[in-house]
Structures are given as C-alpha cells and as structure tokens.
Amino acid sequence: MAKFDLKLRALELRRSGVSIRQIAEQLGVSRSTSSIWCDGIALTSAQRANLIRKQIESGNKGRQIGAEMNKKKRLDNIIAQEAQAKKIVGKLSERDRFMLGIALYWGEGVKARGSTTAIVNSDPAMVLFARNWFEKLGVPRAMFRPTVFISDAHQDRELLITLYWSELLGMPKSQFAKIVFIKGRSKKVYENHDSYYGVLALRVRKGMTLKYRILGLIKACKS
C-alpha cells in the first residue's frame, strides 16, 4: 500500500474512533507517523470515552497478567528452595530433634530460674514439637498446664480456642488453665480473626528440676 493510501486508511480508522497506537500497529508505521497523519481529526466525546475505557481495561489486564506471572515465579521459587532445603536437612535423627528442642527452648522458653518451665509460641507446629520434646525428657502428658493468651476481641470464641489446642496437643480441656484475654485499645477485626488461636504457653507443673536440666543443656551449647 502506497504512503498516500496508508494515510487515507489512517484517517478513516481515526474517524471511526481507533487509537493512534492501534492505527500504527495495523498499518505498520510508527506511532509518531500515525499521530502526524491523524492530527487534524477530532474525536467525539463518545469516541474519547471509549478509548479511555479500552486503555483502562488494557492496563488492568496487563497488570493482572504481570501479577499472575510474578505469583507463579514466587511459587516456583518457593517450591525449588523447599526441595533444596529438604535435601540439605535430610532425615533428622533423634539427637537432631533433641538438639532442636534445646535451641527452641533457648529461643522461646521461659528461662528465669524462679519461674515456671514453659515454651511460649503461637505456631501450632512449634508447640506440638515442644510437647514431644518435653515428653522425651520424661514429662508425663498429665503434667502439662497449657495457658492461652489472646486479645479480648476473641472472647466469644473461648470454647473453640480451647478445643483447638486441646485436640492439637491431645489433652483434655479440663487440663487447660483459663484463657487470659488481653485488653487492647483497638477493636479492629482482622481477616484471620476466625483462624487465629492466640499464643500458647506450654507449661510444665512442678518442673523446677526439669528447668535446671534444660538451662544446663543450654549452657552446655554455649561453651
């Protein structure tokens, strides 16, 4: 198609409300050329509104595609790193788990000599690991006295919260201390409100000798 014919076609497309970018793409010319050719064409308000709507839709679609691509890259990276980590860690021995328990108490346990023996955390997997570790140290399950700490915004979920930790730890609800509801200024309800079960202190009753032993284990790891 000759240059003159291209220009006529560009004017025709522009009068029908086609964007400068689309005209350039259809005719195989630069956007600047398309813009110069169509400079004298005034679009109606309806045509301008339609172009703006298409631009917004195109932008939203582009952002959505970009977000999906980034999400896929992130998930692929997570899967790859988890697979690599599994190879590095390998199968844990009993000693490995024992040493992990010492590190866990070192980081999350109550260490003051005159206080109770307890590990405090909100991660269910970590709390369950702590229970198993305590039992390996000879603590009978009946000697645990778990206590939950949670915002007073969850008072209407008291029974559900106790039931959740009771089933997780394999202990009767009667073994739990009364939930400690923490008063807060904010009454905002968060998205995870119904799936949050607070912070659990896994306490051991009459566990001072155990406390001294654990503190000795931690001290041995420091040297």
Explain what this protein looks like in three dimensions.
The protein has a domain at 94-184 and 192-222. Helices cover 57% and strands 9% of the residues. The model has no long low-confidence stretch (mean pLDDT 89). The relative contact order is 0.10. The chain is α+β, with helices and mostly antiparallel strands. The protein is elongated, with a radius of gyration of 33 Å. The longest helix is centred in the first third of the chain and has 45 residues, at 45-89. The chain contains 8 helices and 4 strands, in the order αααααβαβαββα.
Gist of the model:
The chain is of the alpha+beta class and 223 residues long. It has helices at residues 3-15, 20-27, 31-37, 45-89, 94-108, 124-136, 158-169, 208-222, and strands spanning 117-121, 147-151, 180-182, 199-204.
Radius of gyration: 33 Å
The unreliable regions are: none
Q: Approximately how much beta-strand content do the residues carry?
A: 5-15%
Which structural class best describes the helix and strand composition? alpha+beta
Number of strands: 4
Largest beta-sheet details = 4 strands, mixed
Enumerate how many helices there are, as a single number.
8
Shape: elongated
**Largest beta sheet: what is the strand line-up?**
1-4-2-3
Could you tell me how far the N terminus lies from the C terminus, measured between alpha carbons in angstroms?
A: 85 Å
Question: Could you outline the blueprint of secondary structure elements for this entry?
Answer:
Layout lengths: L2 H13 L4 H8 L3 H7 L7 H45 L4 H15 L8 E5 L2 H13 L10 E5 L6 H12 L10 E3 L16 E6 L3 H15 L1
Parallel strand pairs: 2-3
Antiparallel strand pairs: 1-4, 2-4
